[in-house]
What we know:
Blueprint: H1 4-10, H2 24-35, H3 40-49, E1 54-57, H4 60-71, E2 84-88, E3 94-96, E4 99-109, E5 114-116, E6 119-121, E7 127-139, E8 146-150, E9 154-159, E10 162-173, E11 176-179, E12 185-195, E13 201-211, H5 213-216, H6 219-225, E14 238-242, E15 252-254, E16 257-259, E17 263-267, H7 277-283
Parallel strand pairs: 10-12, 12-15
Antiparallel strand pairs: 1-17, 2-4, 2-13, 3-4, 4-7, 5-6, 7-8, 7-9, 9-10, 10-11, 12-13, 14-17, 15-16
Helix pairs in contact: 2-3, 2-4, 3-7
Amino acid sequence: WDYGYWVQNGFExxxxxxxxxxIKYWNFLMGRHVLTGxxxxxxxxxxxxxxxxxxxxxxxxxxxxxAYSSIGSDADFDRYSWxxxxxxxxxxxxxxxxxxxxxxEGGYVLDDDFIWDGxxxxxxxxxxxxxxxxxxQSVDNESGEExxxxxxxxxxxxxxxxxxxxxxxxxxxxxEMVWFPEEGYKGCLRIIPTLQGSGQIENPxxxxxxxxxxxxxxxxxxxxxxxxxxxxFDTSAxxxxxxxxxxxxxxxxxxxxxxxxxxIWEINYPEGFTVDEETKQKYLGGNELLPDYFFDxx
Length: 298
């Protein structure tokens, strides 16, 4: 909704939402069923009811995730989450016989309780201080080319001064989403480059964005952060039509802040996809349909 007027005035296109926030109920629905939607089908129902043809996401959504996941949550804040940047610390790089271990430091506060080895790490009290990624280095016997393989990362969980090393189940690097076999924390670290002041790449793996399990299950992250490469989340109805070329910088860390491209997807509703009239009217309703726990509406 923050970009509705921009779309209307700059591109002369209609938008479902805009800055007037006249129908706050639609903000709730967009936050819950589209941005943090748990399946593509869930999002398509709302989008179809509003005859939506295209979907826009910009890099600002990364920082605003906390706001719209809160707006789209239920009374127990089931969708409430956030994304935290991490940076590589070269001084903590550990060399091994067959490679090295990269260490990314940050401060991710857990958005949900997590239990490991019988210990409860409570949400909004425990956190993740660092992510360690073993990197295997080898040489191709035929070409002589150096090969680099990212192995399963681990996170350092901290609560009450007691650290715990826990496997991280997912890593997104070089356009590939890798799910590892050892069970642990079900979030994902998206590796991104750091940029110099000139805009040139300083380190292609210099930073990361930490996404929780809740975040990995959200539609918007699977479209924008994970670039429709999550084998566990179908986004086939969304076809990227703008933002894939070099017009914009990739998702990167630039002078301490996260930047990235504007992307637009055309929505291709599956053949035979329909929304029953009752559901359609629910999605087209007014502020009187806001949940009781939501803020007061005049």
